[in-house]
Specification:
243 residues, alpha/beta, Rossmann fold, 9 helices, 9 strands
Length: 243
Amino acid sequence: MSEKVSFGYESVSPEEKTERVGAVFSNVARKYDVMNDAMSAGLHRLWKDRFVRRVKPRPGEAILDMAGGTGDIAFRLAGAGAEVTVADINQDMLDVGVERAMERGVDGLVWSCQNAERLSYPDGIFDAYTIAFGIRNVTHIDKALAEAFRVLKFGGRFFCLEFSTTEWPGFKEAYDVYSHKLVPKIGEAIAGDAESYRYLIESIRRFPPMPEFEAMIRHAGFAHTKVEPILGGLVAIHSGWKV
């Protein structure tokens, strides 16, 4: 049988998933940040601030921000003096990020179109690898984690911010209703695209639970792995070290 991977609730070929995910992010690129504010009531900003505090970027260190798209994480990392490379498979998202950097007067970022499963960088050149709300859209998560491990220096650190499944009773049920019923309608109203946001919600539901994803990070070679749930696991910060 040919390999199948998940695209939301559908099972498709790896090639089809890559193509369709690309189309989703090309469609939403211009409204991506506005939608993040609308869907999370601005909470994504606090989550990203907390995430970057955990990364502890330092002046002069090299950080790869994978799936960095419109630059939200990169701007925060660069603000601490880190030398940041923003990588994303979707050029439309990167184009928006470059425009935002120019508007903000943020210089020195490197923008690069990259596939997380096949990075063009040599081994061991980054001090840290970050990926926020991107890894669940990767076709083969295990390959992306292996590449993250490869491009990090010895002693380098991996940090991932991703949606998961909240374990808070009551809140879980309310969020399920909100995400499945209302988010596509918000996407239609703001971005003129309900289907892309329906996929994004479904992709959260298909993402591995926190313990399973932590095990995948360990399997990729990372040590001292840790999971920090936010809102009972609605969002989680995963981390590990290359030692």
